[in-house]
Amino acid sequence: MHFKTGEFAMSEQKVSGSCLCRKVRYQITGNMGVFQYCHCSRCRKFTGSAHAANLFVSPADFSWSSGEDSVGRFDPEDTKYFATSFCKSCGSSLPWLSKSGNVVIIPAGTLDEDPGIRPSNNIFCGSRPDWYTSAGSLPEHEDMPPRKK
Ligand SMILES: [Zn+2]
Ligand SMILES: [Zn+2]
Predict the structure, then answer these.
(1) Which of 122, 52, 61 is nearest to 97 (CA)?
(2) CA nearest 99: which of 84, 81, 85, 86?
(3) 67-76 in b/e burial notation, b at 16+ Cβ within 10 A?
(4) How confident is the model at residue 9 (pLDDT cuts 50, 70, 90)?
(5) 94 CA from centroid of ligand 1 (Å)
(6) Integer CA distances (angstroms), 20 to 38, 39, 60, 99, 126, in order
(7) Distance from Cα 95 to the centre of ligand 1, integer Å
(8) Residues, Cβ < 5 Å to ion ligand 1
(9) Which of 30, 40, 112, 93 minimizes the C-alpha distance to 63?
(10) What does the alpha-carbon distance between residue 95 and residue 62 come to, in Å, rounded to a whole number?
(11) Residue 146 CA, ligand 1 centroid: distance in Å
(12) Cα of 93 to ligand 1 centre, how many Å?
Protein backbone atom coordinates (compact mmCIF):
# COMPACT_ATOMS: atom_id res chain seq x y z
CA MET A 1 0.00 0.00 0.00
CA HIS A 2 2.06 2.93 -1.21
CA PHE A 3 -0.43 5.15 -2.94
CA LYS A 4 0.54 8.76 -3.29
CA THR A 5 -2.08 11.27 -2.31
CA GLY A 6 -3.78 12.71 -5.32
CA GLU A 7 -2.87 9.80 -7.55
CA PHE A 8 -6.29 8.26 -7.21
CA ALA A 9 -9.77 9.66 -7.19
CA MET A 10 -11.35 10.00 -3.76
CA SER A 11 -13.51 6.91 -4.22
CA GLU A 12 -10.49 4.71 -4.98
CA GLN A 13 -8.30 6.05 -2.23
CA LYS A 14 -6.83 3.65 0.33
CA VAL A 15 -5.39 5.01 3.53
CA SER A 16 -3.78 2.97 6.28
CA GLY A 17 -3.28 3.60 9.96
CA SER A 18 -1.77 1.92 13.01
CA CYS A 19 -1.21 2.20 16.74
CA LEU A 20 2.01 3.28 18.44
CA CYS A 21 3.41 -0.28 18.76
CA ARG A 22 2.14 -1.11 15.25
CA LYS A 23 0.60 -4.40 16.33
CA VAL A 24 -2.77 -3.12 15.17
CA ARG A 25 -3.16 -1.88 11.60
CA TYR A 26 -6.21 -0.85 9.66
CA GLN A 27 -7.21 0.38 6.25
CA ILE A 28 -9.84 2.77 5.00
CA THR A 29 -11.12 2.56 1.44
CA GLY A 30 -13.67 4.59 -0.37
CA ASN A 31 -15.09 7.92 0.58
CA MET A 32 -13.82 9.85 3.52
CA GLY A 33 -16.64 11.55 5.34
CA VAL A 34 -16.40 14.42 7.79
CA PHE A 35 -13.10 15.41 9.41
CA GLN A 36 -13.47 17.56 12.51
CA TYR A 37 -12.02 18.48 15.88
CA CYS A 38 -14.16 17.45 18.84
CA HIS A 39 -13.77 19.41 22.08
CA CYS A 40 -16.18 17.34 24.18
CA SER A 41 -15.07 16.14 27.61
CA ARG A 42 -15.24 12.45 26.62
CA CYS A 43 -12.89 12.93 23.68
CA ARG A 44 -10.60 14.94 25.96
CA LYS A 45 -10.43 12.09 28.48
CA PHE A 46 -9.97 9.42 25.83
CA THR A 47 -7.23 11.22 23.90
CA GLY A 48 -5.60 12.90 26.90
CA SER A 49 -5.30 15.90 24.63
CA ALA A 50 -6.92 19.30 24.17
CA HIS A 51 -9.33 17.89 21.60
CA ALA A 52 -9.88 14.91 19.35
CA ALA A 53 -9.21 15.00 15.59
CA ASN A 54 -11.77 12.61 14.16
CA LEU A 55 -12.49 11.34 10.69
CA PHE A 56 -15.81 9.60 10.00
CA VAL A 57 -16.11 6.73 7.55
CA SER A 58 -18.71 4.12 6.68
CA PRO A 59 -18.21 0.70 8.35
CA ALA A 60 -18.19 -0.78 4.83
CA ASP A 61 -15.07 1.25 4.05
CA PHE A 62 -13.13 0.20 7.14
CA SER A 63 -11.17 -2.99 7.89
CA TRP A 64 -8.53 -4.19 10.32
CA SER A 65 -5.39 -5.33 8.47
CA SER A 66 -3.66 -6.93 11.43
CA GLY A 67 -3.78 -7.25 15.20
CA GLU A 68 -7.56 -7.18 15.56
CA ASP A 69 -7.29 -9.48 18.61
CA SER A 70 -5.28 -6.72 20.32
CA VAL A 71 -8.12 -4.21 19.95
CA GLY A 72 -9.94 -3.42 23.18
CA ARG A 73 -13.25 -1.56 23.40
CA PHE A 74 -14.98 0.48 26.06
CA ASP A 75 -18.70 1.25 25.91
CA PRO A 76 -19.62 3.83 28.54
CA GLU A 77 -23.01 2.98 30.06
CA ASP A 78 -24.34 6.52 29.74
CA THR A 79 -23.73 7.12 26.03
CA LYS A 80 -25.93 6.45 23.02
CA TYR A 81 -23.24 6.94 20.42
CA PHE A 82 -19.82 7.29 21.99
CA ALA A 83 -17.48 4.37 22.66
CA THR A 84 -13.72 3.94 22.43
CA SER A 85 -11.22 1.47 21.03
CA PHE A 86 -7.59 1.13 22.01
CA CYS A 87 -4.58 -1.15 21.56
CA LYS A 88 -4.28 -3.58 24.47
CA SER A 89 -0.48 -3.54 24.10
CA CYS A 90 0.38 0.16 23.80
CA GLY A 91 -2.85 1.92 24.82
CA SER A 92 -3.15 4.01 21.66
CA SER A 93 -6.55 5.28 20.55
CA LEU A 94 -7.91 3.27 17.65
CA PRO A 95 -10.92 3.53 15.31
CA TRP A 96 -14.21 2.71 17.01
CA LEU A 97 -17.63 1.78 15.75
CA SER A 98 -20.36 4.03 17.07
CA LYS A 99 -22.87 2.30 19.33
CA SER A 100 -25.46 2.92 16.61
CA GLY A 101 -23.26 0.85 14.30
CA ASN A 102 -23.51 3.16 11.29
CA VAL A 103 -20.19 5.02 11.44
CA VAL A 104 -16.55 4.31 12.29
CA ILE A 105 -14.71 7.15 13.98
CA ILE A 106 -11.04 7.31 13.06
CA PRO A 107 -8.70 9.13 15.46
CA ALA A 108 -6.72 11.02 12.78
CA GLY A 109 -3.48 10.83 14.77
CA THR A 110 -3.38 7.09 14.05
CA LEU A 111 -3.30 7.61 10.26
CA ASP A 112 -0.04 6.74 8.48
CA GLU A 113 -1.01 8.48 5.26
CA ASP A 114 -2.70 11.67 4.19
CA PRO A 115 -6.46 11.05 4.01
CA GLY A 116 -6.78 13.77 1.39
CA ILE A 117 -9.34 15.81 3.29
CA ARG A 118 -8.79 18.43 5.98
CA PRO A 119 -10.62 19.28 9.21
CA SER A 120 -13.56 21.54 8.52
CA ASN A 121 -15.22 22.02 11.90
CA ASN A 122 -14.77 22.41 15.65
CA ILE A 123 -17.61 20.82 17.60
CA PHE A 124 -18.58 20.87 21.30
CA CYS A 125 -16.58 24.08 21.78
CA GLY A 126 -18.75 24.83 24.81
CA SER A 127 -17.04 21.95 26.61
CA ARG A 128 -13.50 23.30 26.28
CA PRO A 129 -11.52 23.37 29.55
CA ASP A 130 -10.48 26.69 31.09
CA TRP A 131 -6.88 26.07 30.05
CA TYR A 132 -7.71 25.59 26.38
CA THR A 133 -5.54 27.68 24.09
CA SER A 134 -5.70 27.38 20.31
CA ALA A 135 -2.52 25.81 18.88
CA GLY A 136 -2.42 28.44 16.15
CA SER A 137 -2.14 31.24 18.71
CA LEU A 138 1.10 29.86 20.25
CA PRO A 139 4.73 30.37 19.15
CA GLU A 140 5.95 27.61 16.83
CA HIS A 141 9.27 25.72 16.86
CA GLU A 142 10.39 23.32 14.14
CA ASP A 143 11.38 20.78 16.83
CA MET A 144 12.25 20.85 20.54
CA PRO A 145 13.14 24.47 21.36
CA PRO A 146 16.46 25.25 23.14
CA ARG A 147 16.15 25.15 26.91
CA LYS A 148 15.89 28.48 28.65
CA LYS A 149 18.60 29.00 31.32
ZN1 LIG B 1 -0.32 -0.92 19.89
ZN1 LIG C 1 -16.02 14.31 21.36
Answers:
(1) 61
(2) 81
(3) beebbeeeee
(4) very low
(5) 9
(6) 22, 23, 25, 25, 31
(7) 12
(8) 19, 21, 23, 87, 89-90
(9) 30
(10) 9
(11) 31
(12) 9
* Residues 104-144: tens digit of each pLDDT: 999 999 999 999 999 999 999 999 999 999 999 999 999 99
Cα(130) to centroid(ligand 1), Å: 31
Q: Do residues 39 and 133 make contact, with C-beta atoms less than 8 angstroms apart?
A: no
Nearest Cα neighbor of 35 from 112, 129, 107, 97 is: 107
Judge whether 120 and 22 are in contact, CB under 8 Å: no
Q: Per DSSP, what are the bridge partners of residue 38?
A: 52, 123
Per residue in 67-78, pLDDT tens? 999 999 999 999
